[in-house]
Each structure stands twice: as structure tokens, then as C-alpha cells.
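Supplementary Methods, section 5.1.

A reviewer requested that the exact input to the structure prediction be made available. We therefore reproduce it here, unchanged from the version used in the analyses.
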Amino acid sequence: MGWILNIGSLNKRIELQAQTKTSDEMGGFVTIWTSMLPAGTTIAAAIWPISASEMIQAGQTVMTITHRIRIRYRSVLKNSWKIKFGNRYFAIVSILNPNEAGKYLDILCKEAA
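The structure derived from this sequence is encoded cell-by-cell as follows.
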């Protein structure tokens, strides 16, 4: 059985970000999120919502939404990174390489709203 990737479904543009440490100019460091792509570059993706749940945390209602994001295969992607889509951010929970084919990745993510 082969893999199926409908290129037309990759109709969203995302950015991959990783935490980096930068000097706070006072002898310490600050952790910031930095794009792992060349400046101004995004990659094509398909985004599907999977589920949503609501819970009360510290007296406030917190909504957690999970998504599946599909991109063309990239060997450098790490679970510690996050995905930026417009002004939304997705924490990577798991990265799947269907059939170990190296054609595309399904990324299971969590978005807090």
C-alpha cells in the first residue's frame, strides 16, 4: 500500500520554531522562540482539528484543542519545537512518519486557547 499526499491539501503556511537562549545583557540568559527557517520563509501544511476539551485550571476555564498537521518530510523536526500558524501556536506532542516512507509527516499538536 502506498502513501497518499494530496499536494492541494497543503494550503496553509506555517513556521517551525525552537527555543533558543539569548543574552539578557546582564550576565544571564533569556529563552525565546526562534524560527528554524530562513527569514520570511514558511512551509506548506494541511491542518485538521481532531478534538477539543475544556477544564478549569486555577479558577479559569482553559480550552485545549488538538490538531493534526501534515507537512512534507523533514528530518530535522523535533518534538521540543512548536508550530506557528498566523497568530496561533501549536505545541508538538508527537511526530509520525507514516509507513516510515519519508514522504510526509503527521504532527499531532496541542493548541491552548
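The first strand starts at residue 12 and ends at 23. These observations are discussed further in the main text.
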